[in-house]
Amino acid sequence: MASQQEDLEHSSSRQVEAIAEKIRAGKTALGVELGSTRIKAVLIDDTYATIAAGVFEWENHLENGLWTYSLEEVWHGLQTAYASMAYDVENAYGEKLTRVGSMGISGMQHGYLALDANGQLLVPFRTWRNTNTHDAHEKLSKLFQYNIPERWSIAHLYQAILNREPHVPKVASLTTLAGYVHWKLTGNKVVGVCDASGMFPIDQDTKYYEKDLLAKFSAIPEVAAQPWHIENLLPTPLVAGRDAGRLTAEGAQLLDPTGTLQAGIRLVPPEGDGGTGMVATNSVRVRTGNVSAGTSIFAMVVLGRKLKHPRPEIDLTVTPVGDLVGQSHGNNFTSDLNAWVGLFSQFAHAAGFKVDMGTLYGTLFRAAIGDQADADAGGLLNYCFYSGEFLANLEEGRPVFARGPEAHMNLANFMRAQLFSAFAPVKIGMDVMIREEHVQVDSLVGHGGIFATPRVAQKILAAAFNTPIKVMSTAAEGGAWGMAVLADYLWHRDVALADYLDERVFAGAASTTENPDPRDVAGFERFFTRFMKGLTIEKAAIDAIPLEENHEDATQTE
């Protein structure tokens, strides 16, 4: 027995030393992603295993009716996540992290980050969650004959022009959140081509912005009156595998104020969370796709051709190497669900039970597919709209739970309605893509923390889309891991990205596939019909409930 224990200890010691040697030799890649609810730093080795990670939790907030994060939060969060990851390295392997082999920054796509000639932010960062750009969306989509979603940077810029916002003439550059951080770390104003495709349409041949659409935008009278030209504002798009600069001394200090991290590290093009989701699910080939679920949700399919007609329900973006992608994007997904789980946690605490959040989520999720759950969620309805939702024609959102007096109210149906409602908006766009545009899909891969509980979200998504859903062993790794993989691709760019992922990263990766259950499919369709009919409830809630309430003042008044 003692001998076996000694053998295990020696084996563990050898593994630790082997990883420590990789860290010293720079056989690592660092991915950092600024997601909607957390900033995460992930360090991988040359086998693509995560060897250290750090996380900073954060939330967007409303400022003058617009969703935003402050730049102070950005840097505090980045430094905290990096410091936690670096501590992991030193604690587990006895090495101070002075360098990595390569690194990359990823972030939530779209939105409006406008800087003046001195690099100063002109207005608070307007995130993808804002849907105040409907006029710009409609006018640009008609002019371009190309769907320009409300979230896109160009829609935000044009809406600011239409609103005659005083900062507009001062704009010297536009970028994404990942592009901004990358610029501060390297001095280079570039973005990955997938991230760029959420700013302005990308030409499939040149992997650059569509020149004719740039010209059309510039010719709009109110745009032509500005002292700048749109092409000079946008960052340069780069495909995956390109060298996008080196970490400067100032950048190293920004990321690691302790001074331990050394300058000179190579960075790859900063990417959006859509691109890192494609990489993390091995979905960059034509006819593959993925569903990335977090604070928002998007279902993406790599297209073999352009769509027959512009479709407002389908965004056209590209993969990290510039291939066309059809995307159904929902602004809302887990925020409402997390709030309800938080309520159950408070109840458990009040009742004297100690339940960790992982156990709580697992217990509640499993109830949704248990024996007590009706196929259609028992007549319950839920609207998870914290913010506006283009797919549902909503400029604002209010979370709403509703039921009729004869509805079958139990825990199983409540949780099933929560999960059904979270997937319902993105189904609108997917139905258009598959049923009307006849897009061919060989495989769809689920990705995100919601798939960490085995089978549940996978089974419900299979019902929603009526298609098999694969979940890989890396599903919960997240976009930061996908960004680290893209950082490593810098050293393998002589191989096509799809082949690199197949042959190196995912060779032998374990996965499970959930096929659609006919009972679940029929139940989801009944729920979905109620969901669409009941949108009048959501619209009434928007009219009746103020977007921002000062609860403290209200309490004092009472």
TrEMBL record:
Q: Which domain of life is it from?
A: Bacteria
Entry EC number(s): 2.7.1.-
Residue span, Carbohydrate kinase FGGY N-terminal domain: 29-222
How would you classify this enzyme at the top EC level? transferase
- Domain Carbohydrate kinase FGGY C-terminal, which positions? 290-489
Q: Which InterPro entries match?
A: ATPase_NBD, FGGY_C, FGGY_Carb_Kinase, FGGY_N
Q: Give the protein family.
A: Belongs to the FGGY kinase family.
Q: What is this protein called?
A: FGGY-family carbohydrate kinase
Organism per entry: Bifidobacterium aquikefiricola
Q: What broad taxonomic lineage does this protein's source fall under?
A: Bacteria, Bacillati, Actinomycetota, Actinomycetes, Bifidobacteriales
